[in-house]
Amino acid sequence: MQPELLTNINIYRKSFPHFERPKIIGYIGIENIKFAKHLNNGEVRFDLNLHLDKAKHRPQHLDVKLTDLLIFLKDHKTRLGYPLENALNKAIFYCYRGLMTCIACTPYENKEPWKIVVILYKGNIYMCARDTEESYTRKHNMTEKDKRFTSWGYKFEQFLLSDNPDTEPNPNVPVDETEEFSLVFTTNLNNHTVVYGAEMDGIRCDDRSISPPPVGENPEAIIKYLSTKEYVELKTNRHIEFHNQEINFRRYKTKKWWCQSFLVGVETILCGFRNDEGIVEELKTYNIRDLPKMSQKFWDPNVCFNFLDTFFTYVKRCLAREIRRKHGDKGVDNLQSLPIITLLLEWSPGMPVRIAEHYKYEDDPILPEWFINS
């Protein structure tokens, strides 16, 4: 019988697991770094439709898999110096923050199923989200309204973020939605080591004087610079006018916002509340420490991170079972000798997490040949 992972909330109501403050070990797209000079509460008038017709939109159906993270790992393998582990309990997880957020929120999710490919290769575990039927259909049937909502989020950032700590934001030019700046973090969640990439909105410089990042320096100098800065997360939300909107905001939005920010050590979220025409009329800042308190009737951070910890344990248990089935007991402590081991994990609301039957990694390879050969 295949192992299953239960998602019942009550199972995970216990003390918060040990979680080390995330450490920055790298960056992707440093040329796209942005700075936030103005983080004030109050009334504004930001028209998110400004130059929308000239924006360079991010492709809707782009399947990046783990490409950017894998390029980073290949280019920095000597500097990072991670050992070649043979024991499964020492394997490092590699993924994106979005996937960890999705997993952590699973006990409270009641609509969106998910699929995650797990790859064990050379002592490392790579995890990548894949489309479900629902998400595939949604992405390929986006209405113009859906696309506009997505673009509004990018435009909002342009009203608050500038290219240099000493310059003002300039929303009077079209947005390039393909520009990304990401950090690569590592942390330990109980006995699990995780390395993950996360797109970052901007560095705070509203109440402090800071310099731009050093140009042409070695990675360690830039990482030192990035590690001493405080980051901000920018969000947009429709005006909350009715009780049910307030309930949904506290039940769903604050949970995801908290997980996203906590995983990368962000302490401040700035939300622009807009009307239906895409005009942001109010700015409000949130300290992420306050989000669990204001939403305690609806979700518990202890449940989220205890489930995330248990999920990592479950992945290792499933991989150990697969290794023993294919290569015997000795394979669990001799990972360097094994070929690629893959699993597809599936979950739907109301069901436990399960291993999918009849999965073929060859039909959807996550690790490209250039990465394997390196």
UniProtKB/TrEMBL annotation:
Q: What is this protein called?
A: Decapping nuclease
Q: Name one GO biological process term.
A: nuclear-transcribed mRNA catabolic process
Q: Cross-referenced InterPro entries, in alphabetical order?
A: RAI1, RAI1-like_fam
Q: Does the keyword NAD apply?
A: no
Ranges where the RAI1-like domain occurs: 43-371
Q: Which PANTHER family match?
A: DECAPPING AND EXORIBONUCLEASE PROTEIN, DOM-3 RELATED
Pfam families reported in the protein's UniProt record:
RAI1
Identify the enzyme class: hydrolase
Origin: domain of life? Eukaryota
Question: What EC number(s) does this enzyme carry?
Answer: 3.6.1.-
Q: What are this entry's molecular-function GO terms? A: metal ion binding; mRNA 5'-diphosphatase activity; nuclease activity; nucleotide binding; RNA binding
Sum up the protein's function in the record's words: Decapping enzyme for NAD-capped RNAs: specifically hydrolyzes the nicotinamide adenine dinucleotide (NAD) cap from a subset of RNAs by removing the entire NAD moiety from the 5'-end of an NAD-capped RNA.
Any Gene Ontology CC annotation: nucleus
Provide the alphabetized UniProt keywords: Hydrolase, Metal-binding, Nuclease, Nucleotide-binding, Nucleus, RNA-binding
As recorded in Swiss-Prot or TrEMBL, the protein's gene is named: LOC113522690
Obligatory cofactor(s): a divalent metal cation
The entry's family comment says: Belongs to the DXO/Dom3Z family.
- Cell compartment(s), UniProt: Nucleus
